[in-house]
Amino acid sequence: MKREQYQKLIRAVFYALLCTLLWLLPCKMYISPCVMLLGLVWLADPDYAGRWQRLKERRLWIPMLLLIGYYLLYLISMAYTGNMAAGWFTMEKKLLFVIAPLLLLTMPDELVSRRHFNGLLTAFIVGCCVTIAASLAYAFVCYNHTGDSAYFYYQLVSPFQHPSYLAMYLTFSLAAALYLVGCQTEDTSMAGRVSLALYAIPAIVYLFLLQSKAGFLSLILLLVFFAIYGLVRRNKKLLISVLYIAVLSGASFWLIPNASSRLESSAAELSAGAQTNVADAGTSSMRLLIWKEALNITVEHPLFGVGAGDTQDCLNQRYEAAGMIKAYRKELNAHSQVMQTAVAIGLIGVLLLAAIFVYPIVVCRRTKLMPLWLFFILLVGLNILVESMWETIAGVSFFTVFYCLLARYGEMNAN
Asked: What is the pTM of this model?
């Protein structure tokens, strides 16, 4: 009896820490200590045999091997990399590709229910809401001291992390809200529907203040995806919610000053094309130039890449030779995780990266989490095309944690 009570307590603490982790993700604070505590609680649970049995019975060993295999390819590349310090720093940032599957894919069945999953999504939404409030409060304080309205836009209004990552977080939080309100068979309470509807207002307004181009594309993806899903399923609740978010988005686009300024500047850059000065290129045209140089490196090192530690050094050499002064001075990464992976560990790594994304698309059709899981894959897939997401803690933590949670809860809730 004491053993059962001990396990119940340990698992309650584990779930509480997991909610705390999701709550802290948007502001990117105390992630490492929270993961360490989760690991200690995981070790304190004596049900080791049951964990591996669950992996085998529910085929959760597949996503585990995919994520850990991606990390191992980077680890193997340390054998032929030159810059060991940079390489080990890269390995440290990607450590959640190993830790997250071990902790989350082996969760006990008593923590895997609709109620538990909804609680985790709610914790993440609340974390996004707190981050928005704190960021806007910071912007107001700075504006009162300086009178500069620039504190309400782009990087200055996002003191916790890069606007592109926070925009991705917010978009997924809106997808989670749509799932909670419109995609579940059980009716949500009136208070829950009102709360999620009210949350959408600051979330969308703040998303436009972030002025992230990838964020704008992610919002369009959200509206198109859930509109199509709602039409196919003839889900009126979901369609009404999507329409509500679309109206809020349109109003924010037209009413917020400078909301479309970065989109307009990007369009101007791309239309300039070959006339763009390489040494003075903007962010959009700079990406195209960076991808070209990354592709050239991949052609020279196709199978295994240049190694985890030499990736940035090789890119810097290319930037300097091509006269890309801004990229060279700022030591910009490949600004695409696909390109970054190709440069670092070659086409073998790119194939494994593709498998990581194909697996959920194949299995999510038979799960009740299908719309949220599929949207998550599309959202991250869009963002890794234009950002080296897995070269930062913000990108790695968001992807690995939700990938493993959706895999674990998806398998448990299979139709």
From this structure: 0.94
